[in-house]
Specification:
heterotrimer, A alpha/beta, B alpha+beta, C alpha+beta, B: alpha+beta, 60s Ribosomal Protein L30, Chain: A, Phosphoribosyl-aminoimidazole Synthetase, Chain A, domain 2, seven-stranded mixed sheet, 26 strands, globular, C: alpha+beta, six-stranded antiparallel sheet, 3 helices
Chain lengths: ~250, ~775, ~150
Amino acid sequence: MSARVAVVVFPGTNSEDETLRALAAAGLDAEIVHWSRGAAGLRPFDAYVLPGGFSYEDRVRAGAVAAHDEAMDAVIEGAQRGKYVLGICNGAQTLLEAGLVPGTGPLRRPTAAFAPNASGKFQSQHVYVRLNVSPGRMPMLASLPPRCVIPAWASHGEGRLAATEAELDRLQADGHIAFVYCNAHGDDVPAPNGSARGAAALTNAAGNVLAIMPHPERSERAVYAPSGGVVFFAAFAAALAAAVRA
Amino acid sequence: MVAIDVDALIEQRGRIGVALTPDEIRAIVAHLGRLPTETELFAFDAQWSEHCSYKSSRQHLRKLPVDGPTVMQGPAEDAGILHLGTWNGESYGVVIAHESHNHPSQVVPFEGAATGIGGIVRDVLCMGAEIIGLADPLRFGRLDDPHCRYVAQSVVDGIAAYGNAIGVPNMGGDVYIDESFDDNVLVNVVALGLVKESEIIHSKAPPHSIGYDIVLVGKATDRSGFGGASFSSLTLDDADAEANKGAVQVPDPFLKNVIIRASYRVFEELRRDNIVAGFKDLGAGGFAGCSAELCASGGVGAEVELDRVPTSQPDLPPAVVAIGETQERLCWIVPPSFTSRLLAIYNEEFSLPRISRGAAAAIVGTVVEGGRYRATYRGEVVMDVDLDFLTGGVRYNRPYTVALPNPPAEPPSYEGFRDAASALTALLAHRDVCSRRAIFERYDGVVRGTTAIPPGYADAGVICPIPGAPLGVALAVAGNPRYGKLDPQLAAEHAVVEAVRNVVAVGARPLGLTDCLNFGDPTVPEHLGALVAAVDGLSYAARRLGTPFVSGNVSLYNQSKSGRTVAPSPIVACVGAIDDVAVTATMAFKRAGSAIYTVGIPDIHLGGSVYAELLGIEGAMVPRLDYDDIERANAFVLAAFREGLIAAAHDVSDGGTLVALAKMAFATHDGPRIGLATEPGARDGIVCDDAFAEATGFVIEVADEEAFAMLAFARDVVVERIATTTAAYEFAFADGSRASLDDLYEVWSAPLRDFYATAPARAPEPVER
Amino acid sequence: MTSVERAYVVSLTIPDNEAYTALTTLVRIGLPVDRAVRADVWIVTLDPARAGAVDAAVPTFEGMFNPNKHRLEIRADAAPRAGEVWIMPRDERPAITIGGRMIEGVHGVRRCTAWRLLDAHGADVPPALLERATEMFLCNPAFQEAIS
């Protein structure tokens, strides 16, 4: 029996179609589930993906309103029970606002945030990100080779990791910084959005929830650069298959 | 009633806030046999405005070619449709619409530009299409002026905010800077859609629709945007600035995002049950304008109850309810058997009322027999007019004079640059050549996951909108104001030729065109004459190249009361199709050791060129266009792409051949860093203008081992080898000069890199503009 | 050269969707709030001799103020009133433009959001409730601080 993945859509989400296609291309049984189906509608699923966009128009803060939406109750419950949760861009912001990532504080009391870019502006550009933790640290992407470099596309106005210095030190020490910005060869580069510690993605302590700002799912048809999505989603699918078997 | 008699009405018209002329008012009174109600007056004001009726330009627009084998639907509705190709047994059309939002963007730039995007995507949606791409040709005033800079920044912010939020990728655009736009920015927007030919929805009441429901969907109507249609048909003036601000609409891309998705659901339901509906978006003229046009074009009438229009402010006068231009609204005509399902989709499944206070889908009227439009409000009839008279509008045969450009004197001798390297350095820093990355980086170019080539990577953006299908769609724009100032007719021809070449440069076969004519005051013969000349140019070029116009727009009165008028600006968009996107390529050089060829016979005239401007060369002619050569060159490039012979290509435009080559090298800047060396004797000698002439054709990169095969293809085209790519990241010129491409990249990147930086430290006291 | 702080508080006269969504979220969280009121605040550090000129210029900046949808309140004491909380980005360098323009005499500009929560009678909610709302939703301490 294969895992069923819910692509959770809030009002204002805009990347659900390509996220669904990326999951389907990796062999996953995935389905778009609207916010209006509530927590009950989401509970039956085995994994959750929160795609990019501008849920609730980024009112108050990006991801803040979605984090309190009833649908998120099911995602939080599932994450606490070990289900895999992937948040991309606005989805990542929502996971941080929900306190699921890094998960170093109480639920819905964020200890880290993807805050406005250093430039103060929305930026859209091709990037590379490098796996910054050992494969065992993050079961949901365990089959990615160590230090693997994934091409992606950063398209956001609030992607700068922000937290207190003490928290940032802890995030680094405890392996929460799952991906960092790099060049095509995997060498560290300053994050284009000014993100602290070059962080492009964060994970929680158990490694079953990932919040990644750059999009791995938009390069399906890319002629301009190598496609990054296939490797990333293949690893996610492999992890899900292993989790279902276990 | 607004006045006691027609003379009083005419006298008060400015205070009431309508732009109708005395003769127009007299014609209305004569037709009605009475004075118009306030609602009717504003309805005529909107429908008969330049913006809605094209009264000064329509007769000239008839010259444009609109037919051809690629046309699925011509300019009759809000968007045109071209044949894209077939996949899985279905014939697909690419929908294209092109509009301007110039006046609103000058007055309140963020909202003006944002609502421009909002409006253009609705035009595409209403054909029953999925919205798949956007482009934004922009014309800004001089950026060292703080106000011009502020307007430019806010325009880009507005376009980004709206396009990014609704999740439609930007595929390209352009930016030109000229002092003639200092007081009148030009903001043109283009949107693309995808629709199956069998599933097109039309913006007219369908056959047999007597008794159908008229359903209004979207944002609750409020006072915002009242007066927009006539506002865009009048010259801007400081004193009107405050009043003008109220006439600018309020964008809501969040609500629009949800409305778009809900509408796609409605499309599904209609198609499943084979129901034919009418669908049109509300723009100029508000609800009355939209529903009137829906009914007029369907040959039916309407009975409307304005009380049933969802509003967010109580006690709005009926004129505001009927004519106000609140954004994010659409209008359906559907059979009553479908209405409850329609309402449920918008109001429940997509919970519009919870997304935006007061937003809803609501039945507001009924389609009736005959040709009248009748609207009531609180039991009173506030509109009762003949639809043909309302929507037919007026036509003016205004006088115009076409200034023939002076025949050029023998171009004066001039002092050129010291060498090719210093020439290229100067050109790359020019305002119309330098990198626009700081601008297009604001736009999401890859949302939806269909992008093959995003903005900045080639002359045209390319997307693959049909999942699983190799069909590609390319989009590019063009329209050079430096040419416009010298020769509007030729400038228009160049706009067509360049837009087409930009699409060919990614291996796409051009399907068709749209145009926006941005000009001055049509009551001034010289300005109307420039428009007439431009239409002639567009027609001629489009006919010669076999690319019809399927949609377009006219924006007049782009001038300030002080008399400064924008450069004649015919702006063209070209959409193309790639049968198999595997043949396309970005403009970046692909490897060292490749051969670089020019393609096409250049016409070496420097009029309007960046080179001429930098050297102060005056009196030169704008380049002539040899259409036979252009057609052969285009055909050759397309065939070579299909054969896999072209590694990279670029159209030669602003700055000429050396600039085109530099840009191809810059595209490798972050890897694999490929430079080039010019062939001895090739066109870069400083005494030879060839290297800096514009509109000469293409430059292409061909792998060395493919050169022989390529030349065999090029039997009837002039190709000349001019350079070889090198592993050294530098540009080596035949005259012995060299330049580091890193240095040149910096020169090219620097001028607009600080586009969003603060104004200069010693800015003058802010003056109310 | 002396420097004072002045606050330009801009709120919407048309319906404020953001405040409405904030309210529905607070209610979902279980807080007894009846209405949420929001404003954008520009805290401007300026040369006091230029205050009049800046006051006159601000209403002409479309980036900040549109008379058809905004009201503007100018406060000589740049601080939240009783019942108000200001949510400020932490560690942000002040800008030098205001509303996209530069004006002589303006030394620094910081922006924040002002919130006020009201009960069913239209009165400010108790300070403890405002504080809870701030902690639970209005402020993200990872990059924002709340001033009241």
